[in-house]
Amino acid sequence: MNKTREVIPGLLLCLVGAAASFVVDTFIEKATGISVLLLVAIILGSIVGNIWTIPGRMLPGVAVSSKIILKIGVALLGLGVPAATVLALGWPVLIVAVLTVVLGFAATLILAPVFGLRRQQALLIGAGCSICGAAAIGAVDGVLTKKKEHEFVTAIAVIALLGTILLALAPVIGYLAGWDPRQEGIFIGLSVHEVSQVVAAGGLAGAAVLPIAVTVKLGRVLLLAPMMMILAALERRHAARAAAAGEITGALPPLVPAFVAAFIGLVLLRTFVSLPTSLIDTVGATQHWMFAAAMFAQGTGVTAATIRAAGSRPFLFAIAVTVVVATTGVLGALLA
């Protein structure tokens, strides 16, 4: 009971921050037609963290929001992925979706030294580009061992900015290429980072494009679980070597993190059990609140100094990985 009471003040702070983020994002969306909720939450959190010293009694709750609430949000994402609908796309599209994720991660590992990024930071950004934006970044953060908080927040901010640019460009590219709705939907679903950004881009492209784009995107989201298990296995190897060298102490990370197992379970539940639409919508809305609160919490730890230190390299790196991902999106459209 005492531990529960300890986290309440910080959780309330992050909940208020999430509410403020929704308000600001509503005005932005009305003016531009584009939602940038997570970016707004990070910026508001950063503003609060830089102008106000958060009281010690609130820190436990802020920590819970930034880590545990984020993982719960990632797990709940599984309820929005009906595997049967994704499989109905056909094997050619599914193979290109797998290729998109694999090549995205390959580019991440190859290009990280070129841009002078730590492997951990590169994996955060690469996951956001290759799979599903902030949710994938949160999932990767949950399995990494040597990680830095400002690198997580930088990855979220970079993906939010780049994804917003891409959601405006993707429909234009499809139009100029003269693709039919199926081709354009496949391209948008394979190229754009966030699920919400895919919805926005598909809406801009047209009513016939939107459902195809979202379904293809869910195919990429479905790959979150196997990619996290592979990454967890690799992290265990890195952690074992570091422990042998005396660089880190403590237990090895689990091969299948609990939130990944929960994600898989909810995908299976959505696939084999008929659930009320109202339940799915409610869980989806709750997930958005969780992500907003988690991003606000993460933002409170970002200082002006860490932002300056990050420089332009993470953004340029994200552009490079996005080009690889978008190229496979073009391939998918051409093969459709």
UniProtKB/TrEMBL annotation:
Mode of membrane association: Multi-pass membrane protein
InterPro entries according to UniProt: UPF0324_pro
Compartments (UniProt record): Cell membrane
Source organism, top-level taxon: Bacteria
Keywords on record: Cell membrane, Membrane, Transmembrane, Transmembrane helix
Transmembrane intervals: 7-28, 34-56, 68-88, 94-115, 122-140, 152-178, 190-212, 218-234, 255-275, 287-307, 314-335
Family: Belongs to the UPF0324 family.
Name under which the protein is recorded: Sulfate exporter family transporter
Organism field: Corynebacterium marambiense
Taxonomic classification: Bacteria, Bacillati, Actinomycetota, Actinomycetes, Mycobacteriales
